[in-house]
């Protein structure tokens, strides 16, 4: 017991300051993000949506749903579902609108998760490059939707007479006072921190202990032939495996590796590969319940298939670009 206690004290003396610093950054970032959302910052970004609907041969009113998605994914999808059910959009037009929605759904997570949570864990350079890569992927999918609408949609896919039967006025005006908005932002921040911090503390401590007391390189050496083909270090295997199951835990695993093991490119590529593999988990955990609840099983399956296929294609292209030996 006496021999274990000094090691435990040494481990905690290493973990606690780093963990405290990360938690402070996360707490400040999450609160700032929720305040920005409460005061409508995201709506200014989402205002660009109207410029995308006309080249895609979609009614301007569809921009309302895209705007709503930036503030609430559920509300945005529900608005599109109403447009489809009313007959304003047929299935093909709805799939195009869902695809265009991708970047604006991502915008919300930039402010509420990627910037305040992931960047403090990954560090500024790796974090910014990773978030930028994910933003580029989301934007590429949105642009693909615009191009697909321009090529595949016409007046036959849109029944503008159905507008009389739907509410296209957009989200209700927010009549909360400034104090109420800040208070609501603080409450949402507390809820987020209660969910993230205990898991982050446990995983971070476990990862540091593993790196400190075990031969991680020896544990991952068997995967060297696979990772070597991609130009990734063997340490990428546990990062990818953990990220597949949990985004925050995967980021912590990467952050806990010894300095110099990963370059910025290989670190970001490892996280993106983990993102590809995580689709299998997230589809059953989140996508099926959510999409089936919004659209029903038949059309919900189509939405999941289109979303997943496009993400896999563009993430794979991004990984290939990151690992290309020409730069």
From TrEMBL:
Q: Which InterPro entries match?
A: MJ0871-like
Mind listing the UniProt keywords for this protein, alphabetically? Answer: Membrane, Transmembrane, Transmembrane helix
Bilayer-spanning residue ranges? 22-42, 62-81, 93-115, 135-153, 196-214, 234-255, 267-284, 304-324
* Annotated protein name in UniProt: Nucleoside recognition protein
Q: Please tell me whether the keyword Membrane is annotated for this protein.
A: yes
**Which species does the entry assign this protein to?**
Halorubrum tibetense
């Amino acid at each position: 017991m006496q021999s274990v206690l000094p090691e435990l004290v040494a481990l905690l003396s290493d973990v606690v300051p780093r963990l405290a610093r990360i938690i402070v950054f996360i707490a400040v970032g999450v609160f700032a993000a929720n305040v920005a959302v409460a005061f409508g910052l995201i709506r200014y970004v989402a205002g660009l949506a109207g410029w995308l609907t006309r080249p895609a041969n979609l009614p301007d009113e569809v921009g309302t749903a895209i705007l709503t998605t930036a503030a609430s994914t559920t509300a945005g999808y529900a608005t599109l579902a109403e447009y489809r059910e009313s007959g304003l959009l047929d299935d093909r037009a709805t799939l195009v609108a869902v695809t265009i929605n991708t970047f604006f759904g991502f915008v919300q997570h930039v402010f509420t998760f990627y910037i305040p949570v992931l960047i403090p864990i990954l560090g500024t350079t790796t974090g910014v490059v990773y978030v930028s890569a994910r933003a580029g992927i989301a934007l590429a999918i949105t642009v693909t939707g615009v191009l697909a609408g321009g090529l595949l949609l016409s007046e036959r896919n849109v029944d503008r007479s159905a507008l009389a039967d739907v509410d296209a006025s957009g989200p209700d005006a927010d009549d909360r006072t400034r104090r109420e908005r800040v208070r609501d932002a603080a409450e949402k921040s507390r809820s987020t921190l209660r969910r993230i911090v205990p898991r982050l503390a446990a995983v971070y401590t476990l990862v540091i202990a593993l790196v400190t007391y075990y031969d991680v390189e020896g544990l991952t050496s068997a995967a060297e032939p696979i990772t070597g083909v991609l130009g990734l270090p063997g340490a990428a295997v546990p990062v990818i495996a953990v990220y597949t199951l949990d985004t925050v835990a995967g980021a912590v695993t990467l952050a806990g590796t010894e300095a110099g093991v990963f370059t910025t490119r290989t670190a970001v590529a490892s996280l993106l590969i983990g993102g590809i593999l995580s689709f299998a988990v997230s589809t059953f955990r989140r996508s099926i319940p959510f999409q089936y609840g919004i659209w029903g099983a038949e059309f919900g399956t189509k939405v999941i298939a289109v979303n997943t296929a496009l993400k896999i294609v563009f993430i794979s292209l991004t990984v290939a670009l990151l690992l290309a030996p020409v730069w």
